[in-house]
Design a protein that fits this description.
Blueprint lengths: L16 H14 L4 H15 L5 H13 L4 H41 L6 H34 L3 H20 L4 H16 L23 H15 L8 H11 L5 H13 L7 H33 L3 H6 L1 H27 L4 H16 L4 H17 L7
Helix pairs in contact: 1-4, 2-4, 3-4, 4-10, 4-11, 5-10, 5-13, 5-14, 5-15, 6-7, 6-13, 7-13, 8-11, 10-11, 14-15
Length: 395
């Protein structure tokens, strides 16, 4: 994929829209486990079974999507649908990938955020929520090795900067959650400035700080702004925007308690499809179903726009030294922010038994390498049992 823009598929090779709807909808229904699962299922579908894409085209698409801001596995699903059936296919495939998980997570939000939910529901939420900090550390640990190897290929100075970017992300997520995206962008700009020749260094990055200021006119406008930040600025995966979402949903707008936010993060992990769906629970807490649907629409709109507008030029994006350098700064910072989000998630716990559940979840996920979804379900079950025998629910 080097040279001319990537062509749209030839008409004779295109599957029907019904086929796209069925295949991408199946992934949206059973794609538990986050981006690694989604990438594996898309590769099996598009490369191995249907041969709609070559292995090289698929790997190039994965790399290009990782260069874009926003949820990479969602963008990959949209791109693959575009590649096999054009723009209409991208819309159909992308929606089929997103909507099943959205329906499930909004249904669970209705249950978990009800005015007076049953005690067992509160116990399950408190148990699953207690485990999400371990999930965040696991997500960061999975991303670190590949990022470290890329840094080693560039040289000693790059390694030093890489460590600095990771630490900056950790500290930002742990201490100044609402501003974590600015830190990621700043790290990207620093690496871009360090790597490019002097005559090519950027001079037009003054607009970046404006990303952090968003006036809201009413609850729905505030929901839309939070969702936009989630969808457009989530480098490295859904967990990277957890501190930002937590600061907005809990501290700034008071739509949720810390415990309810932990529930939202857990629901985003145990439901199929993209984990960015967590923002739909935040939107529901703010403004009911209207808020949930609005939040999801706004969060995923940038992914559709980026693919529909730029998919033909993915090869140029991959070859662009500036884009690569920016991600080499923002990427490690994002990994650090994912790890740092565990600090704010742990601070949200309020009962001693929740810390025991967290420790057990860490052993299961990090020590015994058990899956995220089974671990969260086990933590939810532990919460039900422990609160049923008389241990207190979080306040």
């Amino acid at each position: 994929m080097h040279g001319a823009p990537a062509p749209e598929p030839i008409d004779a090779a295109r599957p029907s829209l019904a086929t796209v709807l069925r295949c991408w909808g199946w992934i949206g229904c059973v794609g538990f486990g986050g981006p690694p699962t989604h990438i594996r299922m898309l590769r099996e579908l598009c490369v191995q079974r249907r041969r709609w894409l070559t292995a090289g085209e698929f790997e190039d698409a994965v790399a290009a999507c990782n260069l874009l801001p926003g949820p990479a596995s969602t963008q990959l699903a949209i791109f693959c649908a575009w590649r096999v059936r054009g723009r209409l296919g991208a819309l159909v495939g992308g929606l089929a990938f997103i909507v099943p998980g959205l329906i499930v997570i909004l249904a669970l939000a209705v249950l978990f955020l009800a005015q007076d939910p049953p005690r067992w529901v509160l116990g399950a939420g408190a148990g699953a929520g207690a485990a999400v900090a371990a999930v965040a550390v696991h997500a960061a640990a999975d991303l670190l090795p590949a990022s470290w190897r890329r840094a080693q290929d560039v040289g000693r100075a790059r390694l030093v900067r890489w460590v600095g970017y990771v630490l900056a992300g950790v500290l930002a997520a742990a201490t100044v959650g609402p501003w974590v995206v600015l830190v990621l962008l700043a790290c990207g700009v620093v690496e871009l400035t360090a790597r490019l020749p002097r005559e090519n260094r950027p001079t037009a990055m003054l607009a970046v700080p404006m990303m952090a200021t968003g006036a809201s006119a009413g609850v729905l406008a505030a929901v839309a702004w939070v969702a936009f930040k989630v969808g457009a600025l989530s480098y490295g995966g859904g967990f990277v925007i957890i501190p930002l979402m937590q600061a907005d949903a809990v501290d700034r707008y008071h739509w949720m308690t810390d415990g309810q936010f932990l529930n939202a993060v857990a629901l985003g992990q145990i439901t199929p499809g993209p984990v960015v769906q967590t923002v739909a629970v935040v939107g529901y807490a703010a403004a009911g179903l209207t808020g949930g649907l609005l939040a999801s629409t706004v969060a995923f709109a940038p992914s559709f726009l980026l693919i529909l507008a730029g998919a033909r030029h993915f090869d140029r994006l991959r070859a662009n030294a500036g884009a690569r350098a920016f991600l080499d700064g923002a990427g490690p910072a994002a990994i650090g922010a994912i790890a740092g989000s565990a600090v704010s998630l742990t601070r949200a716990l309020s009962q001693p038994w929740q810390f025991c559940v967290l420790a057990s979840a860490a052993i299961l996920i990090l020590g015994l390498r058990r899956g995220v979804v089974p671990t969260l379900l086990a933590a939810a079950g532990a919460g039900v049992v422990l609160t049923a025998v008389g241990l207190p629910l979080p306040g």
